[in-house]
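Hallway conversation turned thread

IA: we were arguing at lunch whether anyone had actually written out D-ribose ABC transporter substrate-binding protein end to end. Turns out nobody had. So, for the record, here is the sequence (317 residues) and right after it the structure tokens. Reply here if something looks off.
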Amino acid sequence: MHRQSLISLTLAAAMGFAGQAAADFSPADHLITVITPPPSNAFYKAEADAARAKATELGYRVKTLDHQDDPDVQLRLIQTALGEGSSAIILDNAGSDASVAAVRRAKDANVPVFLIDREVNANGVATAQIVSNNSQCATSVAEFFAEQVGYQGNYVELLGRTSDTNAHVRSEGFHRVLDQIPTMTMVAQQSANWDQTQGYNVMQSILQGNPDIVGVLAGNDTMALGAAAALRNAGANDVIVVGIDGNPDVIRQIANDGTIKATGLQQATRMAEMAVEQTDAYLRSGTTQLPEKQSVDCVLVSKENVEDVLPGGFGMR
């Protein structure tokens, strides 16, 4: 037999085998484990629910877990997922540095990990890192904020969890805009760890020494809600608050002329759905044909377009 004919027969056999493998693929034979921070935060609940719904729609078995924002708990959950035979893991991680080892553990077991919302400080350990364009998000929020306060006055910034890359990127985005305005001064900057209660307590403390502030930039909507409550209780109803996420409670405040005037809506539901769609592609073919790092733009939501937000928040019509 000629060499060319042999090659042709070999290629044909390989293509036939691949086609047969694709035809025999059954999503019901595969478990996708979704691990997020606590669902008490509406953002994380939205992404977990969206991932579960999309995976179920595609025919996969799904398990959702909560790592409590604790890297040690996260590692145990990933080990459990591997032990249960998960075919893929979708993860909103518990820290950009602390999570690298856990994600690598899955990679070493040949189980792909699709990161959503938070990235890790390493390339090549996750199959995909699908995150909000936090720089674009923070910049658009800061531009709106500056306009609302008339480009002047003292303001406060509430930072997110310091171990989270997103907290730093968002803060840098805020200051890329505001540091260029000499008539605006940041009089306090403090972490409230993405938490509403801490946002309330930190805001109360800051107000005691800075009663003349014109506004508050919060690194996420949960902290913004806490800050807004503290301002209302102090009678500081003219202070403008902005956040980032697209939390339903914040959307209601924006719609009803509350203290919070805008948010940079992260498309959490879309990112979760993208992760499931790419998981499906990878399990079927061994590739997503997409880059590892993927960025999804936020949408600035204010009174002007608040009616376009999906009823559950974290997405646009």
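OS: looked through it. Residues 3-24 form the longest helix (22 residues).
IA: good, adding that to the notes. Residues 53 and 286 are 23 Å apart (CA to CA).
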